[in-house]
Design goal:
mainly beta, 4-stranded antiparallel beta sheet, 7-stranded mixed beta sheet, 11 strands
Length: about 120
């Protein structure tokens, strides 16, 4: 099993920045891709960005440019840098890990990001 712990969320003013972190533990050697998703109130969960073990990144529609995903393999941690935040970025952000063994998908508990003046 893989455990994921997110940190770094909070309240920020429009135009501000945040950096989210997600630390993985447990059966991490079978993880081949990690990423971030978000879910705003009354909306479906959507892809923000993913990153493979090789460092290949993929971003959801309209996510690239203001958001940057990165990883620190030594710390088993991924990061999501959020810049130029807008009120519509307000959501719960979830960390995800994809493994080659069951359970194939693991999720963190989610962390709130609120963009408001």
């Amino acid at each position: 099993q893989v455990q994921l712990v997110e940190s770094g969320g909070g309240l920020v003013q429009p135009g501000g920045s945040l950096r989210l972190s997600c630390a993985a533990s447990g059966n991490i050697f079978k993880i081949y891709r990690m990423g971030w998703y978000r879910q705003a109130p009354e909306k479906q969960r959507e892809l923000v960005a993913t990153i493979t073990n090789a460092g290949r990144t993929n971003y959801g529609d309209s996510m690239q440019g203001r958001f940057t995903i990165s990883r620190d393999n030594a710390r088993n941690t991924i990061y999501l840098q959020l810049n130029s935040l807008k009120p519509e970025d307000t959501a719960v952000y979830f960390c995800n890990a994809e493994s080659s063994i069951l359970p194939y998908d693991s999720w963190g508990q989610g962390i709130q990001v609120t963009v408001s003046s």
